[in-house]
Design a protein that fits this description.
This protein has helices at 2-6, 10-19, 23-32, 34-37, 40-47, 53-66, 71-75. Helix 2 packs antiparallel against helix 3. The protein is mostly helical. The N and C termini lie far apart (31 Å).
């Protein structure tokens, strides 16, 4: 994971974080580097497993600002 972060491989880093059970970090990575690391289906799966409730609200805010047409799918 450190190598993926060092070389700015954001999709790979998010994938590794998700499979390592670091759901909070994965959600943050996808929001912080959304042009390359964000995937709607992965975001939905990870958001359901996040342990920090504030991150869930940040994720909703992210969708309102960047992906408003997919918000209803995220909430379902």
């Amino acid at each position: 994971m450190r190598a993926a972060e060092a070389y700015h491989l954001w999709p790979a880093l998010a994938h590794l974080q998700m499979h390592d059970g670091e759901h909070d970090a994965c959600l943050l990575t996808m929001m912080k580097h959304s042009p390359s690391a964000w995937e709607h289906d992965v975001f939905k799966a990870v958001a359901a497993r996040v342990s920090n409730p504030e991150l869930v609200f940040r994720g909703l805010r992210f969708y309102l600002e960047e992906r408003p047409l997919l918000l209803s799918d995220l909430l379902s």
